[in-house]
Amino acid sequence: MDLLANDFPSVILAERAAPCLSLYQRTYRRHPENLQDPIRFSNLVRELAQSLQQKYPDREIKPLLAPLHALAEDAGFWNHTLDGLAVLAAPDFFRVYRLQRPVVDLAVVADSFHTKPLLRIMQSADRYQVLGLNRHEARLFEGNRDHLDEIELAPDVPRTLADAVDRDFERDPAMRTYGRIKQEMGRHGASDVKQDGIQADTERFFRAVDRGVLEHHSRPSGLPLLLATLPEHHHLFRDISRNPNLLAAGIDVFAGDLTLDVLCKRAWEQVQPNYLERLAGLVDRFHAASHRDQASDDLAESAKAAVAGRIHTLLLEAERQIPGRIDAASGEITLGELADPETDDLLDDLGERVLATGGEVVMVPAERMPTRTGLAAIYRF
Q1: Dmax of the chain from CA atoms?
Q2: What is the pLDDT of residues 267-306, one digit of tens each?
Q3: How far is 155 from 353, CA to CA, in rounded Å?
Q4: pLDDT, tens digit, for every residue of 32-61?
Q5: Domains, the chain
Q6: More confident residue, 97 or 174
Q7: Residues 338, 345: contact at Cβ < 8 Å?
Q8: What is the spatial distance between Cα 286 and Cα 274, in angstroms, rounded to a whole number?
Q9: pTM to 2 decimals?
Q10: CB atoms near residue 370 (< 10 Å)
């Protein structure tokens, strides 16, 4: 399964050869609600096909739709859905993302991907990751205040102690402090393994996990990381960790020993203070920049600043929509009606342009926004 955190925004916002297919669908986690998910998906694929037939010949349509038809028939996939689904397809490009928040059903064929639902999900300020760790296993979870799900570790991240020890052994046999741990454990039992050898391999495992999670998960996502492990392992991991996303707070139990619902509840209790502190800091920055005339809550002014690459940080009201379009060259805005299929959401367009110029976008609940216009832009200059 593709990881949205690794692809957004650089891969998803990159220019692609047309046609670009975007499919969004609300899905359900449990039976019997999820029985209709593949049927509704096939209906959305049919809508894509009808749109394609108006402009493209069959020889171009069939290869584009082939992976979507295959996904529709993949029973294993539909047995493990979350709250939403995003599928992006173009010539030589295909991505499928399970989403932890519902989306409105939508099938769009255009010259670029429709990314607004992903923008709203990926830039929400309540997202975080949890690293579950013990001496023998590492697991990674990602979620928000409402849901937490396990995600697959990148191939370069060791999942078990044996993975890390075997990799080090292959690189440098002299690094091993005792025989292969899997063989020793199997022949003699844990009691025969020296304590110093266990400690050395545990530290080696933790270092490899920290390095891999930082490179393949924390840096690409930018999400805060919560450690869920036994008390005796917290000190060791924090001593060796170089991950700046690692929170001071933690959970004193291995994540794998808790249900997802309990883990989510306990994780959010620890993450929420960091979430509130971050939002308060962003609001303070906006007010301070406003006093220096380096911030704005005006949509027209902010649109021109975004096109010029002047916005460093943009706060957007999470559920607010302002129908219209932004001229890509001038930044001029044109208001419209959301019922018009040619009309976008100005706030989402604004967010995309800020991301495209290296700025930061944060989706904020209405009650914590410092303005009443739906946006708060902090300028670089």
Answers
A1: 75
A2: 999 999 999 999 999 999 999 999 999 999 999 999 999 9
A3: 32
A4: 999 999 999 999 999 999 999 988 877 789
A5: 4-122 (3.30.960.10), 128-276 (3.30.420.60), 292-379 (3.30.1330.30)
A6: 97
A7: yes
A8: 18
A9: 0.79
A10: 17
